[in-house]
Amino acid sequence: MSIQKIVSLNFRNLESQEIELSSGINLFIGSNGMGKTNFLEAIYTACHSSSFRTHQTQNLLNFRNEDFELSPTKVQAIFKEDHVLRKLEWIQNSEKKWLQLDGKKISAKKVKNKFPVILFSPESLRCIKEEASKRRELIDTAMSYEPRRQQLITDFKKCLKQRNKALKDYSKDPTENLRSVAEQFSQVFIGLSFKLSHERILFLKDLRKAFEQAYKSLFVNCESACMNYKINEELSINPQTYDLKESQKLMEVLTEQYYKYCKIEYQTAFSLWGAHKHDISFLVDEKDSKTYCSQGQQRGLILSFKIAEVETRIEQHNQTPILLLDDVMSELDKLRRQHLLEYLENSSAQVVITTTDEKEYISGTLKPQKIYNIFNGKLTPIHT
């Protein structure tokens, strides 16, 4: 599966135009602020019904266009799937947004599963540098293409919200009835915390081999890298060795945490334990990359994770995702850049790359099939 064509209308600063893509490597060149990331964002938004840069979708609209009130913002992606062309459209006006596939409305969940897109951007490094919620989001987003796991994430978030409300209700009016309601939600919450943690660990286990191989290919003859699932300061699970015994231990720890924090939760009216408090550790030579690694190593870790996503999706699910790479070469030395280019050249995935310096791509071994220059939102093809 690949995108044959992208049509944008009133999306950020992009001119309304039709852009043809190759099923291989596509390169977009331009100075900062010209619209390179906006183009990747348009593709991502069409396939996710949300942006990777803002939660306020009004920010995606081009209000400078005089015809905005008459014509909504739209991104149209023409996909080729098993020799059949499919038309996916993300549309937003001043009041609402929606997705269409071949002219019929479709849910974002179905689109994510059907048209997988994997993104690396400079913001991806926040997963290493910042709080645990960024790493949980990284894992949950990566595994949510499976409807079963996506539903589990939705159920957990809903239960967390309901439990917090029940705790808050009891803190305001501590009756036996409201306490019983909170305890009922707590029992469901224990089960969902276990299930979500369990699925995260299994996902990391599936990803492990491809992740380690990708990191070794970028950092040849250097350190080793792995990922662990961290419940708290006392318990960290290695996905490689995760088995029935450890899953039972996981359930025991979650139950113990419930009883440990039960009294204080009724006072704070907030869930102090559970899968929303867990963390994922990216380790290099068994040291936490958040404090141990250089910028280049941290970038290599996230790139390795994204590459592992691509390879695992191909190998285990017979589904080739589209890989979006925004300013990917920064802070990588010459050798790492060369290894990344070799991977991209040999990958079966459709790749869309943005850069300010085309020399790295055009003069080396990588041979982009489509090259565009971007200036003030206008994309112009460059013939090679």
Could you please describe the fold and organization of this structure?
By secondary structure, the chain is α+β, with helices and mostly antiparallel strands. It has two domains: 178 residues, P-loop containing nucleotide triphosphate hydrolases (Rossmann fold); 161 residues, RecF/RecN/SMC, N-terminal domain (Glutathione S-transferase Yfyf (Class Pi), Chain A, domain 2), CATH 1.20.1050.90. The chain is 45% helix and 22% strand. It contains eleven helices and 16 strands. The strands form three sheets. It has a six-stranded antiparallel beta sheet, with helices on one face. The chain has a six-stranded mixed beta sheet with strand order 8-13-14-3-15-16, sandwiched between helices. It has a four-stranded antiparallel beta sheet with strand order 10-9-11-12. A hairpin with a 7-residue loop joins strand 1 and strand 2. Helix 5 runs antiparallel to helix 6, helix 6 crosses helix 7 and helix 6 packs across helix 9. The model has no long low-confidence stretch (mean pLDDT 90).
